[in-house]
Design a protein that fits this description.
single chain, alpha/beta, Rossmann fold, 7-stranded parallel β-sheet, 12 strands, globular
Length: 323
């Protein structure tokens, strides 16, 4: 039987790539360099399934390439805001993603950022590496206590709930949340979570605001100048979702004006580029998009993308269909 032709846009873990070789007539990206727009168009013309990730901006123009062969996009990642989903649906292109498998590791990173920002861990490590530490003293690098504080979670889906679990049971934090959808009461009771009516309420009441909602047209710059001004001057914002949910210019201004105490960021609006201020401010902890970066999770993401693709070509229901 003829194997489906697959093109993979970035390097995957070796175990995933070995499996791809067994199941598909696959072209791998050995150099791991991002595809250009023209290369993405060419890939769509020469494969049955394109297997991209967050670095691939798959626009309406790219999807509309003449003589497109690909009938499916098997995305490596839970987020799909880099794909023009409306155009894909219009053209009859099936799109899948890889949710669930990265929930725990992303929540771990959110808590890491929260703790590092609050306790000034990055500053301390830099001081040690620069050999500037002169020893313990009562007023040295005083941070913010985490235990017992209020954590406001924007987006109370799988990852938001996983963050709540760690914060509530691990650090006795009071959980506040906002979500446009109704969350079952048995879920909220687990964490003694309280739903607030608006994002503004979350900003006003929380000591830490964690962004855990998807990137959509509605959530673009959800955290903006007005909402930063509502936050406590002692509060921190944590983002492990998508960079463009935060207006980075407004964030920089809020930090410069000391309207908030700090930020912990794993994602950026124009990554891998980010404002110089976010690179140099001592009260900002920045990670290079490490939310799902564990061996176990990345392997699970690759296998989930493969299972979605196998289901598509077998004509069965996709486990994780977007459109």
């Amino acid at each position: 039987m003829t194997k489906p032709v697959a093109i993979v846009t970035r390097k995957w873990p070796k175990e995933n790539e070995d499996r791809l070789k067994e199941l598909f007539d696959v072209t791998l990206n050995e150099s791991d360099k991002p595809f250009t727009a023209d290369e993405l168009k060419s890939a769509l013309q020469n494969c049955d399934v394109l297997m991209p990730t967050v670095t691939d901006k798959i626009t309406a123009d790219i999807l509309s390439v003449e003589n497109r062969r690909a009938k499916m996009i098997g995305n490596f990642g839970v987020g799909f805001n880099h794909i023009d989903i409306a155009k894909a649906k219009e053209l009859g292109i099936t799109v899948s993603n890889t949710p669930s498998v990265l929930t725990d590791c992303t929540a771990d990173i959110a808590m890491s950022l929260l703790l590092m920002a609050a306790r000034r861990v990055g500053e301390g490590e830099r001081e040690l590496r620069a050999e500037n530490w002169t020893g313990w003293r009562p007023t040295h690098l005083l941070g913010t206590k985490v235990t017992g504080k209020k954590l406001g979670i924007i987006g109370f889906g799988r990852i938001g709930q996983a963050v709540a679990k760690r914060a509530h049971f691990g650090f006795d934090m009071d959980i506040l949340y906002w979500d446009p959808y109704d969350i079952p009461s048995d879920v909220t009771k687990k964490f003694s979570a309280t739903k607030l009516d608006t994002i503004e309420d979350i900003c006003e009441e929380s000591d830490f605001v964690s962004i855990n909602c998807p990137a959509t047209k509605e959530t673009l710059h959800l955290m903006n100048e007005e909402r930063f001004k509502l936050m406590k001057k002692t509060a921190f914002v944590i983002n492990t979702a998508r960079g463009d949910i935060i207006d980075e210019k407004a964030l920089v201004q809020a930090l410069v004006n000391k309207e908030i105490a700090g930020a912990g960021l794993d994602v950026f609006e124009t990554e891998p580029n980010l404002p110089n201020e976010l690179k140099t401010m001592e009260n900002v902890v920045s990670f290079p998009h490490l939310g799902s970066a564990t061996i176990e999770t990345r392997l699970a993401m690759g296998n989930t993308a493969i299972e979605n693709t196998l289901a598509f070509f077998a004509g069965t229901d996709l486990p994780n269909k977007v459109v």
